[in-house]
Design brief:
By secondary structure, this protein is mainly alpha-helical. Helix 3 packs antiparallel against helix 8. About 3% of the residues have low confidence. The protein has one domain. It has 12 helices and 2 strands.
Length: 248
């Protein structure tokens, strides 16, 4: 698995896709942060992370569209299937490589918070100064970042599965974006439905709705399990696709 992971991670940066994705992610993150916090003179980062979550629905398919589709196009898929590595190791190596690139970009984007994460000094008496925090709450920042990382992992697992179904990278990207848009859209239309049980079901399966607690700095273990389950299901399905191809 580690050999596949290193190969895939290296391939992101010997082709333009890794640089295009990283540049687009960091540029878009900086632009969104600028307009939602700095120019609006606000310390509220809720809008920033919400918009970034939807932006990830377009950016992450750029990472995942080539994972398996490119192998089919270049006719190197048989080399993977006959390599001395398990199918699970092969799929996990590709999944973790994409997750590493995404996680690294997300970590670097945290420099956007430096201009709004400040302290100030208040004088008490003649000599004593008390420093107090001005800016977003640290717990909320960490909660939002963890939430985005989990959602990104779920999107990557979905994109990996779809990439395994086709050899056309553009088709893989478009289908992944469409499915992600549907998954996120469930949370947006939820408030428009009057039937309670339908609203409750949509809220339970909605990626967007489960992100709410992370935005408030709360670690929702049910949401963590939900996102982890999505990762497991789509990684498992990808493994099953390639196990079937190996024996056929």
């Amino acid at each position: 698995m580690f050999a596949i992971y290193k190969k895939e991670l290296r391939s992101f940066f010997i082709t333009p896709i890794g640089y295009v994705y990283t540049g687009a992610f960091l540029g878009l993150a900086a632009l969104i942060c600028c307009y939602t916090t700095i120019l609006s003179s606000s310390y509220d980062t809720t809008s920033y992370f919400t918009i970034m979550m939807f932006a990830m629905g377009i950016l992450i398919p750029l990472l995942t569209m080539r994972l398996f589709a490119e192998e089919k196009k270049l006719r190197t898929e048989q080399l993977l299937l006959t390599a001395p590595v398990t199918i699970t190791g092969m799929v996990m190596g590709k999944f973790l490589a994409a997750l590493t690139v995404f996680g690294g970009s997300l970590l670097v984007s945290c420099i956007n918070f430096i201009p709004i994460y400040t302290t100030a000094a208040a004088e008490r008496g003649n000599q004593t100064y008390e420093f107090y925090h001005i800016g977003p709450v640290t717990g909320q920042l960490i909660g939002n970042l963890v939430g985005l990382l989990l959602i990104g992992a779920a999107f990557i697992a979905l994109g990996t599965f779809i990439s395994a179904l086709t050899e056309n990278q553009l088709a893989a990207a478009v289908i992944t974006i469409s499915v992600i848009a549907l998954m996120l859209g469930l949370g947006l239309v939820n408030s428009l439905i009057d039937v309670y049980w339908i609203r409750a079901v949509l809220s339970w399966i909605s990626i967007y709705s489960r992100f709410g607690n992370f935005q408030n700095g709360l670690f929702d273990f049910a949401a963590i399990l939900y996102y982890a389950s999505i990762c497991f299901v789509f990684v498992f399905l990808t493994v099953r696709v390639y196990e079937k191809r190996r024996w056929n």
